[in-house]
Amino acid sequence: MSGASAKTMRSAAGAACIAAVVAAFGCFAFQFVPGEPRAPQPEEFDGSIDGVGNNRYRAERIVDVPFGQTYRAESLTRGKWFSMSEDERAALSDEERERLLNEFDYIYDLDGIEITPSDMRAVSLEAFAEWYPHYTQTLGYEQASRYESKVLLVDVTFSNTSDQEQRTPPIDLWSEDIKGANDVLDNGVGDGSGNYILEELYGEPSDRGLVQNHLPDDWNVLAAGETRTLTLPFLLPRGLLEDPNTFDDLDPARFCLALSDYDPPTVYRLWLG
């Protein structure tokens, strides 16, 4: 065989090899074309509100307020004083006891505040984050978005009929459909401040360089004679419900706003439907 023929044959064989390799890679690429990335699946929430509230006080009386009616606070007693045990109080000196009792938030009565809740609306956590994009930057969103959750929004009208300024009282979301629901005072789902949701509605940018907003000191102060409607948000994961299947179509009539009075231990439940 001449040198030219051998060279031609080697070139043809090389071309055939290259074509085979290209075909093989083409087949490989065809079989392994990446698909659309899957959204991360939410974690399963495993928790309850059984330990929420002041377990030193169980309600001696439950007062149900039907939906559409106004509740009027009369001598509703609250304060940090009730978070102390009898032993802790007994250990106080007379001077310490006097000082604490003279501080505003250690023990106080709410008088003449009228409270009227209106409809409850449920939106997905993602929808809430679209309304308030800043929320996605907070630690609260990072934690809440691990689970399938909804934000329940309740418009509440507060009227201060007294002749002095007062703060709106702490209010929880309560339902016997929530895991761990009980009759301990202050049992329920909090108003979203722990997840920085409330701060998105009524907060201001932090002056300390923090990402999350902070609530102004007077955000919930009512002047004498003032009436104001506030939207209270509550974060509800699917897994917090006794029956997770009810999460898709929540019935407002199964939920209420709960207020606790420590003297005597009483829970007022303002029903939402």
Descriptive account of the structure:
The chain has 273 residues and is an alpha+beta fold. It has a domain at 54-75 and 111-271: Immunoglobulin-like, CATH 2.60.40. The chain has helices at 3-31, 86-90, 94-102, 125-131, 139-144, 197-202, and strands spanning 54-58, 61-65, 71-73, 76-78, 108-110, 113-124, 149-160, 166-167, 172-174, 184-185, 221-222, 227-237, 256-262, 265-271. The chain has a four-stranded mixed beta sheet, with no helix packed on it. A four-stranded antiparallel beta sheet has the order 3-6-7-12. The model is unreliable at 1-33 (pLDDT under 50).
Set out the fold topology.
Blueprint (H helix, E strand, L loop, with lengths): L2 H29 L22 E5 L2 E5 L5 E3 L2 E3 L7 H5 L3 H9 L5 E3 L2 E12 H7 L7 H6 L4 E12 L5 E2 L4 E3 L9 E2 L11 H6 L18 E2 L4 E11 L18 E7 L2 E7 L2
Parallel strand pairs: 2-14
Antiparallel strand pairs: 1-10, 3-6, 4-5, 6-7, 7-12, 8-11, 9-13, 13-14
List keywords for this structure.
alpha+beta, 14 strands, 4-stranded antiparallel beta sheet, 23% helix, 28% strand, 6 helices, 273 residues, Immunoglobulin-like
